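Example for tutorial group B:
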C-alpha cells in the first residue's frame, strides 16, 4: 500500500508508521463508510460469495476422509470415482466462486477509486495558487495516484480478506470439532508452532532488509552524485578518482554483506518452517493413532485423521492474517487520512455569498491601502495605493524582489489582500464572481507554458469552441501564423512536453495568440519579453502592441521600448509605490527610476 514512507513488511509497523498512526474516531470511520455506502448491494454480494466459498472449500478435505474410509478401505471402485469427481466439482466450484468474488471486489474498488480521483481532482483545481507554490509537486501526484490507487488494496484486499479469513476460520473450526474435538484441539495447538517462527524470522528479515535498503540508498546516492555530468567533471578536476572509488568499494562491501545475511536468514527460516510443517501432521497422526490403538476409539477413523490434517493446513494462513489485522487496519486508516488531509484543505479563495458580474471593460483598476504577505509577519506589499485608468497601459518597474509580480497576481485573485482592497471600477474584485473575473483578464508570463499536445490544442485551451478561422486570425495578430504554416503538420504540429519542440519566441507568440483568442478586457504582461533575444522581442513587441489596443494593461517591463510607450509608470521598491509618472517626469525627479534607467538600460544621463 503506498504512503509517505517506506512501509514495513506484513505484520510490522515502521517507527514512522507508529509515530503517525491516525486516531480511530467515529467521524473518520463514518467518512470512510460514505465512500463504501453507495455500493452496499455489491458488497453484500461479495460477502455472500465469500461465505459460499468458505463452506464449499471444506468439502474437498471432508470428501478425502470419505475416500479413505469408504472407498479405499471398502474397496469400492465406483464409489472412489464418484467421490473423486465430487471432490473435483466442489474444488472447481470453490475456485469459480472465488473468481466471481474477486471480480466484484475489483469492480467496487475501481468505482470507489474513480469517485475519489474525481473528487480530489476537482478539489485541487479550485485550490488557491499558493497551494501549488508551497506543496511539492511529487506529493500532489502521490496523493492523486498512489494514495488513491492504494484504496483498491483496502477494498479488494484488506476488507474482503478480513471477512474471508473470519469465515474460513469459523467454518473450518466447526468442521474440525464436528469430526473430532480431540484432534481439533491438537491441531489448534500446532498453529502457534507455525506462526511464532514466521513472525520471529519476519522481524529478523525486516531488520536486515531495512539496513540493506539504507545502504542501497547510500550507494545509489553516491553513484548519482559521482557519475553525473557535473559530479564526474568535479572528480576529474580535483583528481578524486581513487578516493571516490574507495568510498564506493566500502559501501558496496557493506551492501553485499547485508544481502548475504538476509538470504541466509531466509534459507534457515524455510528449513525451520519445513520441519514444523511436517511435525504438525505427525502429531495429529500420533494423537489419532493413540486414540484408535491405545484407547480403542471406534468412532475415529483413518479418513477422519486425514481430513483433519487437510483442514488444519487450511487454518494457518487465515489465522496469521487475522493476527495482522491491526497492522492492515492502521495502514488503511493512514491511507485514507492522507487523502482526507488534502480534501480538507481550505480553498481559501472562493466566491462571496452574492457574487456579481459587472462590466469590466475600460474600468479603472484601483489598489487602495493594500497590505499583503505570503508568510505571516513577513510583509511583501505595505500600504500600497495607485490607480490604472481604464483603457490605458501602465508599466511597473522596480528592483528584483520588490513585489511587482505580487501586485499583478492580486488582480485575478491568485492571492487575496491581507488589508485594503483591489477594485475594478467601483467593485472590489472579491465581490466579483471568480470565474467571470478571470475570464475577463488575460495574462502572459515570462515563461510561456504549453501542454503536451498540438498547436491547435494549446490555442483552444483559451476557448475550446473557437473556429479554425478565429484561431488563424489570433495567430496572425500574434505574428505566428506564417511560422505555423511552415511546419509540415501546420496547426496539428505537436509542441512536445512543455512546448520544448518550439523556440522561446515561438512559444511566447503562441501564448499571446492564446490570450488574443480569449479576448480579455484587461491584459497583464509579466516580463513577457525579458528572456528573449532582440529579434524575437521585435516580433512579439509588434504583436503585443496590437493586443494592448482598447484594453486596460499592466506591464511588468525590463525593456526600454515597453516603458517608453507606457501611459504611466509605477516604480515599486520594497512593496511600496515610491514614484509614479511618465518616463520624462520620472527622469526629472532623479530618484530610483533614474537609477534603474541608468543601470538596466546602460544609459549615462550626464
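The residue assignment follows.
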Amino acid at each position: 500500500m503506498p504512503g509517505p514512507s517506506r512501509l514495513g513488511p506484513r505484520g510490522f509497523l515502521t517507527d514512522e508508521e507508529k509515530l503517525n498512526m491516525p486516531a480511530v474516531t467515529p467521524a473518520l470511520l463514518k467518512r470512510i463508510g460514505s465512500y463504501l455506502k453507495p455500493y452496499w448491494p455489491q458488497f453484500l454480494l461479495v460477502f455472500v460469495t465469500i461465505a459460499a466459498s468458505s463452506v464449499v472449500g471444506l468439502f474437498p478435505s471432508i470428501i478425502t476422509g470419505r475416500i479413505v474410509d469408504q472407498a479405499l478401505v471398502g474397496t469400492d471402485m465406483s464409489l472412489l470415482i464418484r467421490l473423486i469427481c465430487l471432490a473435483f466439482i466442489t474444488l472447481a466450484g470453490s475456485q469459480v466462486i472465488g473468481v466471481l468474488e474477486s471480480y466484484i471486489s475489483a469492480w467496487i474498488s475501481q468505482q470507489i477509486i474513480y469517485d475519489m480521483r474525481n473528487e480530489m481532482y476537482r478539489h485541487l483545481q479550485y485550490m488557491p495558487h499558493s497551494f501549488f507554490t508551497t506543496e511539492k509537486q511529487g506529493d500532489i501526484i502521490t496523493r492523486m495516484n498512489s494514495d488513491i490507487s492504494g484504496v483498491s488494496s483496502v477494498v479488494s484486499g484488506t476488507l474482503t480478506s478480513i471477512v474471508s479469513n473470519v469465515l474460513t476460520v469459523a467454518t473450518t473450526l466447526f468442521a474440525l470439532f464436528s469430526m473430532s474435538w480431540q484432534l481439533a484441539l491438537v491441531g489448534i495447538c500446532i498453529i502457534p508452532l507455525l506462526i511464532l517462527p514466521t513472525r520471529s524470522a519476519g522481524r529478523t528479515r525486516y531488520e536486515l532488509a531495512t539496513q540493506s535498503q539504507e545502504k542501497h540508498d547510500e550507494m545509489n546516492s553516491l553513484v548519482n552524485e559521482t557519475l553525473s555530468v557535473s559530479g564526474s567533471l568535479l572528480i576529474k578536476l580535483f583528481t578524486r578518482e581513487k578516493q571516490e572509488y574507495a568510498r564506493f568499494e566500502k559501501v558496496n562491501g557493506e551492501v553485499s554483506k547485508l544481502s548475504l545475511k538476509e538470504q541466509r536468514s531466509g534459507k534457515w527460516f524455510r528449513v525451520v518452517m519445513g520441519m514444523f510443517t511436517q511435525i504438525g501432521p505427525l502429531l495429529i497422526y500420533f494423537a489419532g493413532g493413540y486414540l484408535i490403538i491405545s484407547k480403542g476409539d471406534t468412532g475415529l477413523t483413518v479418513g477422519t485423521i486425514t481430513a483433519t490434517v487437510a483442514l488444519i493446513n487450511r487454518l494457518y494462513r487465515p489465522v496469521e492474517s487475522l493476527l495482522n489485522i491491526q497492522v492492515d487496519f492502521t495502514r488503511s486508516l493512514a491511507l485514507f487520512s492522507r487523502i482526507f488531509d488534502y480534501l480538507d484543505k481550505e480553498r481559501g479563495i472562493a466566491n462571496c455569498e452574492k457574487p456579481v458580474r459587472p462590466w469590466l471593460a475600460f474600468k479603472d483598476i484601483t489598489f487602495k491601502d493594500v497590505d499583503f504577505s505570503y508568510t505571516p509577519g513577513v510583509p511583501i506589499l505595505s500600504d500600497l495605493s495607485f490607480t490604472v485608468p481604464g483603457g490605458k497601459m501602465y508599466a511597473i518597474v522596480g528592483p528584483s524582489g520588490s513585489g511587482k509580480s505580487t501586485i499583478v497576481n492580486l488582480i485575478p485573485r491568485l492571492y487575496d489582500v491581507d488589508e485594503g482592497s483591489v477594485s475594478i471600477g467601483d467593485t472590489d474584485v472579491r465581490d466579483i464572481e471568480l470565474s467571470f473575473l478571470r475570464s475577463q483578464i488575460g495574462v502572459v508570463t515570462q515563461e510561456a507554458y504549453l501542454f503536451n499536445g498540438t498547436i491547435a490544442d494549446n490555442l483552444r485551451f483559451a476557448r475550446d469552441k473557437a473556429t479554425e478561422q478565429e484561431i488563424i486570425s489570433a495567430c496572425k495578430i500574434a505574428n505566428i501564423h506564417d511560422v505555423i504554416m511552415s511546419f509540415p503538420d501546420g496547426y496539428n504540429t505537436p509542441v512536445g512536453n512543455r512546448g520544448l519542440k518550439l523556440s522561446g519566441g515561438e512559444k511566447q507568440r503562441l501564448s499571446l495568440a492564446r490570450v488574443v483568442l480569449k479576448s480579455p478586457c484587461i491584459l497583464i504582461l509579466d516580463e513577457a519579453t525579458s528572456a528573449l533575444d532582440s529579434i524575437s522581442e521585435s516580433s512579439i513587441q509588434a504583436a503585443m502592441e496590437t493586443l494592448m489596443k482598447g484594453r486596460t494593461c499592466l506591464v511588468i517591463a525590463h525593456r526600454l521600448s515597453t516603458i517608453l510607450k507606457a501611459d504611466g509608470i509605477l516604480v515599486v521598491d520594497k512593496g511600496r509605490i515610491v514614484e509614479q509618472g511618465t518616463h520624462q517626469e520620472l527622469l526629472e525627479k532623479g530618484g530610483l527610476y533614474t537609477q534603474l534607467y541608468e543601470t538596466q538600460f546602460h544609459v549615462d544621463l550626464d
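The beta strands are 365-372, 381-388, 393-397, 419-424, 427-428, 441-444, 522-526, 552-556, 568-573, 576-581. Compare this with the pattern of hydrophobic and polar residues in the output above.
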